[in-house]
């Protein structure tokens, strides 16, 4: 199909994320992708600064992942998970238990990050129902979060950010507390006492009706690309324990090394009761996510009047996605992934430093393989994207943010190129 024809059909019929209908002529037509490069229909190649929204950590068409998918296709691409089981999913669940914080032992495999958050919330609500405490059904969360686009996840997204403001009055009403003070680390000073007191006051006041505290650990992503110190996660753990509330970490964006720790929970030294992973789980190849919980939570549910977790997506435990996820984890853990993330972090720090001098830039921050330039005004998305594409780089700015989270296989020259494109985009955005 010719690109113009494709774009006309796209505009007429296809919804894009957060897009209008009819659509816009904005999307670039991608023909193929390999390594860290997207190849467009007009032959132009772009270095991918987005890892397809945090997921393609090994880049595209990695031989090990291609091979794992092919091998699995020769056996079965899908089979229902009710009453049946298979090696790819069982191996994956066992591996996830092995590499995530110690008390997480039980795994629910779903098909997207949003659904894994729904499942996490369902686990928490059902746990308290099973224990005869159905009044514990609200969630406490930080402002500025993003947990997905289905209803419970939307209810714990940033209420002011505009993404889901349309649904105010329809969404379950949750308890919001300001996000922790900015800064990837407190430099050993410990958590801000006044902030923790406010947090404690909110948890204490609502504890009787709180099922869980739900947060993104270390990095609030799509709600504003904010970083906070792990000490605030330790404070949350203490408050959750003191007030009989479960703690849920949404590691869908941060999981599998992105922050420099395999999971953000590891770096903070905190284990949640429930944890969600997705995105990079399959190296960005296929749609799969997982919700892990402790034996305490699983046993609590099993003791209830309805002793099953009533959730079962058609594509649960998809063998093809599981096989690729297994290959992706082996690939990641079989190499010095932390060294690669540190190398990218150093490259982003050096490459983004000039952005601090650009008029209109409010902040420049880097954590692991995440680089962020925040403007003091909303980004002109079209102009900023065009500036990056002109430099041969794919970026997708939003709100007041121009940011990158490249694949871990991005070499130093391409990291420098991405950083230069972020700076160029900030200059026109
Ligand atoms: N949670 C976090 C922290 C995310 O960043 C996202 C997606 O960006 C989600 C949940 C939702 O995941 P999905 O888009 O796979 O439904």
From TrEMBL:
Pathway(s) served: Cofactor biosynthesis; biotin biosynthesis; 7,8-diaminononanoate from 8-amino-7-oxononanoate (SAM route): step 1/1
UniProt entry tagged with the keyword Transmembrane: no
Modified residues (N6-(pyridoxal phosphate)lysine): 279
Gene: bioA
Quaternary structure (record): Homodimer.
InterPro entries: Aminotrans_3, Aminotrans_3_PPA_site, BioA, PyrdxlP-dep_Trfase, PyrdxlP-dep_Trfase_major, PyrdxlP-dep_Trfase_small
Subcellular localization, as worded in the UniProt entry: Cytoplasm
Swiss-Prot/TrEMBL site (Participates in the substrate recognition with KAPA and in a stacking interaction with the adenine ring of SAM) positions: 18
Species of the source: Streptoalloteichus tenebrarius (strain ATCC 17920 / DSM 40477 / JCM 4838 / CBS 697.72 / NBRC 16177 / NCIMB 11028 / NRRL B-12390 / A12253. 1 / ISP 5477) (Streptomyces tenebrarius)
Protein name, UniProt field: Adenosylmethionine-8-amino-7-oxononanoate aminotransferase
Enzyme Commission (EC) number: 2.6.1.62
Entries under Pfam families matching the protein: Aminotran_3
Role: Catalyzes the transfer of the alpha-amino group from S-adenosyl-L-methionine (SAM) to 7-keto-8-aminopelargonic acid (KAPA) to form 7,8-diaminopelargonic acid (DAPA). It is the only aminotransferase known to utilize SAM as an amino donor.
Keywords assigned: Aminotransferase, Biotin biosynthesis, Cytoplasm, Pyridoxal phosphate, S-adenosyl-L-methionine, Transferase
Residues annotated to bind pyridoxal 5'-phosphate: 113-114, 250, 313-314
């Amino acid at each position: 199909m010719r690109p113009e024809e494709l774009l006309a059909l796209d505009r007429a019929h296809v919804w894009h994320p957060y897009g209008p209908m009819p659509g816009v002529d904005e999307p670039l037509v991608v023909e193929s992708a390999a390594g860290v490069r997207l190849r467009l229909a007009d032959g132009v190649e772009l270095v991918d600064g987005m890892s397809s929204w945090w997921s393609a950590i090994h880049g595209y068409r990695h031989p090990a992942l291609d091979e794992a998918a092919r091998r699995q296709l020769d056996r079965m691409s899908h089979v229902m998970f009710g009453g049946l089981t298979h090696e790819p999913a069982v191996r994956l669940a066992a591996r996830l238990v092995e590499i995530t914080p110690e008390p997480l032992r039980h795994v629910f495999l779903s098909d997207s990050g949003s659904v894994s958050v729904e499942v996490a919330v369902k686990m928490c609500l059902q746990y308290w129902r099973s224990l005869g405490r159905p009044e514990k059904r609200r969630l406490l969360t930080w402002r500025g979060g993003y947990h997905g686009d289905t209803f419970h996840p939307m209810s714990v997204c940033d209420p002011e950010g505009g993404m889901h403001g349309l649904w105010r009055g329809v969404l379950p009403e949750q308890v919001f507390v300001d996000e922790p003070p900015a800064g990837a680390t407190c430099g050993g000073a410990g958590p801000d006492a006044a902030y923790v007191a406010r947090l404690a006051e909110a948890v204490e006041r609502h504890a009787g009706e709180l099922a869980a505290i739900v947060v993104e650990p270390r990095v609030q992503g799509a709600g504003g690309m904010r970083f906070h110190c792990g000490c605030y996660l330790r404070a949350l753990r203490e408050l959750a324990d003191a007030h009989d509330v479960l703690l849920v970490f949404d590691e869908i964006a941060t999981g599998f090394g992105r922050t420099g720790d395999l999971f953000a929970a590891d770096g903070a030294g905190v284990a949640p009761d429930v944890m969600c992973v997705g995105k990079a789980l399959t190296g960005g190849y296929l749609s799969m996510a997982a919700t892990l919980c402790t034996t305490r939570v699983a046993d609590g549910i099993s003791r209830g009047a309805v002793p099953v977790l009533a959730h079962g997506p058609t594509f649960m435990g998809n063998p093809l996605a599981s096989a690729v996820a297994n290959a992706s984890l082996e690939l990641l853990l079989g190499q010095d992934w932390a060294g690669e993330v540190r190398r990218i972090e150093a490259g982003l720090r050096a490459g983004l430093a000039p952005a601090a001098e650009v008029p209109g830039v409010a902040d420049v921050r880097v954590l692991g393989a995440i680089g962020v330039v925040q403007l003091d005004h909303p980004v002109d998305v079209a102009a900023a994207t065009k500036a990056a594409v002109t430099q041969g780089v794919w970026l997708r700015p939003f709100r007041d943010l121009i940011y990158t989270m490249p694949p871990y296989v991005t070499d130093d020259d391409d990291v420098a190129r991405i950083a230069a494109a972020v700076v160029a985009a900030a200059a026109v955005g």
